[in-house]
Amino acid sequence: MAAYDEAELYEDEGPSKSRRKRDAEELKDLGVQLVALPAADLARLPLPEKLRDAVELARRITAHGGAARQRQLIGKLLRHTDLTEIRAAIELQLIDQRIAAREFHRLETWRNRLVEEGEPAIAALLATETALDATRLRSLVDTARHEAALGRPPAASRELFRWLRSTLAANGTRP
């Protein structure tokens, strides 16, 4: 029996099979993310032409088997692509989406508060946003409150939301 040096026994043979499978699954998931992105967001990503074509083709494939094969191809193409820029761009897009969702919810909260509370909420909003047209705000809130009291569809409430969004965006402020 030959004596083995412990260092020889545990030489680095590269990533394990499990590690390679996890990496492949991660690339496949990234490929699914790319296929699911809206066209405008996809166009802004720094993708190689071959990968971009494969992603666009995957969007058009409706057959289950064909779509699965196309996702595999996208994963293979991603293995040979520098992913740092792509991942950074996707992360920036996700951050932008989160910010937009947060702003939307903030505006919804103000709108709901204005309709429910009336004048106290108007005073609070005007105290934080001095550039708002108080007369227009009061008119929209009164209409939305009246509409809610009668149980009508919330058309005036939607109009109030749109006005808040456009006015606060024009002023460059966040409620």
In a few lines, what is going on in this structure?
This protein is 77% helix and 0% strand.
What does this structure look like?
This protein has helices at residues 6-9, 17-36, 39-43, 49-60, 64-79, 84-117, 119-128, 134-150, 155-171. The longest helix has 34 residues, at 84-117. It is built from 9 helices and no strands. The chain folds into 2 domains: 16-81, PSPTO4464-like domains (Diphtheria Toxin Repressor, domain 2, Orthogonal Bundle); 99-171, PSPTO4464-like domains (Diphtheria Toxin Repressor, domain 2). The protein has 175 residues and is mainly α. α2 (17-36) packs across α5 (64-79), α6 (84-117) packs across α9 and α8 runs antiparallel to α9 (155-171).
Write the layout of secondary structure elements.
Layout: H1 6-9, H2 17-36, H3 39-43, H4 49-60, H5 64-79, H6 84-117, H7 119-128, H8 134-150, H9 155-171
Helix pairs in contact: 2-4, 2-5, 4-5, 6-7, 6-8, 6-9, 8-9
Q: What is the correct CATH architecture of the largest domain?
A: Orthogonal Bundle
User: How does the overall form come out from the CA principal axes?
Assistant: elongated
Largest beta sheet, briefly?
Answer: none
Order of helices and strands: HHHHHHHHH
Distance between the termini: 78 Å
**Which regions contain 5 or more consecutive residues with pLDDT less than 50?**
none
CATH fold title of the largest domain: Diphtheria Toxin Repressor, domain 2
CATH class of the largest domain: Mainly Alpha
- What is the chains' assembly state? single chain
Number of strands: 0
Radius of gyration: 27 Å
CATH superfamily label of the largest domain: PSPTO4464-like domains
